[in-house]
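ligand=manganese (II) ion
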Amino acid sequence: MLRQYELVDLVKSYDPYADEDALNRAYVFAMKKHGSQLRTSGDPYYSHPIEVAGILTKYRLDCSSIIAALLHDTVEDTDTTLEEIRSLFGDQVAQLVDGLTKLAMIEQKSGSSKQAENFRKLLLAMSEDIRVLLIKLADRLHNMRTLHFCDPAKRARIARETLDIYAPLAERLGMEEVKEEMDEIAFAELYKDAHDSIVARLNFLREQGSNIIPKIISQLEKDMQDNEIKCTITGREKTPYSIWRKMQLRNASFEQLSDIMAFRICVESVADCYQALGIIHSKYHMVPRRFKDYISTPKPNGYQSLHTGVIGPLNVRIEVQIRTYEMHEVNEKGVAAHWAYKQGQKTEGKNFRWIRELLEILDQAQNPDEFLENTKLEMYNDQVFCFTPKGDLIGLPVGSTPVDFAYAIHSNVGDTCVGAKINGEIKPVRTILHNGDQVEILTSKSQHPSLEWDRFVVTGKAKAAIRRYIRTNKREQFIALGKEILEKLFKSEDQTFAEKDLLPIMPHYEAETIDDIYAKVGEGLITGWDVLRLVHPGYKQQTKLEKMVNSIKLPGFNKKKPSKDSLKIRGLIDGMAVHFAGCCHPLPGDRIVGIVTTGKGVTVHTMECPSLKNYEKEPERWLDIDWGTEAENETHVARLKLMLSNEPGALADVANIAAKSEANIMNLNITYRTLSYYEILLDVEVKNVDQLNNLVLALRASKQVSYVARATQ
Ligand code: MN
């Protein structure tokens, strides 16, 4: 096991500015928290996170990642809370540990490996920060290294999962070494006979040839020297797993596979690569169809190299790979190499745009032959993957709700959906689903699709099913909706609306009743604008600018009291009083839900508000509501929690930033204070959640602010 000072020295060897103190504290924290827990090997549990951190130092990961690796199992396996980690190690480490804890929970939910492809996508989609994935892979690698201590059934399951999910992920990220080691261990576990016989055969050949690898290397070195090419040459036997894969791929026996040795020539420039290739090809017989130029056409994961097969020195068939040192670094370490490289260029912080760029590069190099991944990595950002109660994964577009989920399972389930349990809690059917949510749909035979659903579902399947049902069954609903649309439109354009005005235009639409017109509008066959122009032929639509000019009110004049029927919140029951909850301070732009209290009206909470737990058992009090178009014409109070350094000017800084973001400070409350920092609750007046988010971003950029987020309690 790595000792504390050894780990710190390793990190400092590539990052002299690493936070030594934090590393030390994290090391001790992990030891204390895992305390007397033991691994199946009999080793103390804390040896595991420390080894994982050690693996990551090979990839020169930044200090936050190393600390997160040390802490990666604390939240899941001990009494540690995320808040504790946040206050001790800061936001970034907390976010990484949170990501890893979530992945661990997801892993437990997934039963079968049948859906390996979906599961890989889920892992990718969940790892918003690619460092989470790198730590996860190191975690799995160390678990594989200690696999032999587990009981046989568990061993086989973990090995299978690694082969199906984690090794391909490592490959996708270009971490060749990690992939290879995972594959080897899993192969030895799952196909023991094949593995043993290949190893035995390799041993036999080695004895026969009395280790010819060094001899071949020195001959190749001489070839390069004669042509004045500076290089480093290494050689090795191929791994048993890659030999086995080749046997399967070519349907060949081991005897037929003569090139079991691979040699690697690293040179300084791309020009040298091709020159070295020329030397090899002119001196040795080429094996047909074995030449591949991955320099001009890199592999999808960014891998670059020249590959060729020749009858080499000593008349032995060998594989030769030629590449620059830089390519070699990237080939072996993949994304992590980019990380180490970019680290020199100050990317520490919130801006991980380079990861996006990198993923785009990987995508553009997409090769149609690639069998592992045929969907673009960045596409997973548009999808969420949720579990059925049985553990099957359903992929949906981002923004999907339980209704979309229900229709994805079966249209009968969608049609009769009355509610949903998300991760065991009853939630409104318009709740947005997140990656890894487990969704159970509650159905009732008496339920029918509702027009309301059409406002929030996002999948085509759900939309089509709802509209089809309504078209055939719910003319009344179209009528009501059409009337609502017309009334709103006329009002927003300051035109009078009266049913009698519709009488003269009935023939135009071949309508027999006024309801026919409403139904057509509701169904979307004609637009409200069509009707408006027919009823008021002289009416000209105002341009946006005119509207703005007209809406400017002089101070003191025309100060309209917000009228009761103005659409601030949709879905309210007539005549009910509305309060905004003091716990979560909802803002326009937040997803909201109403809780009804008899005699008191409706309290509006954000969908994420923890206090909603209190109403879980009373689904009849939940009201599906949404912000109306007028909501942003008023300001709302939002509450932020900030951690400031205890220095002169810190508060002034905060006030300045708030002023620049046009957020009015309403109240400020210091909740606690230590020598080095203090925590405040800050109430600000803003228009909507966007404005608040901008303020939060601006505050995060301040040196004085070490933590800022919306307060939820
Ligand atoms: Mn672990």
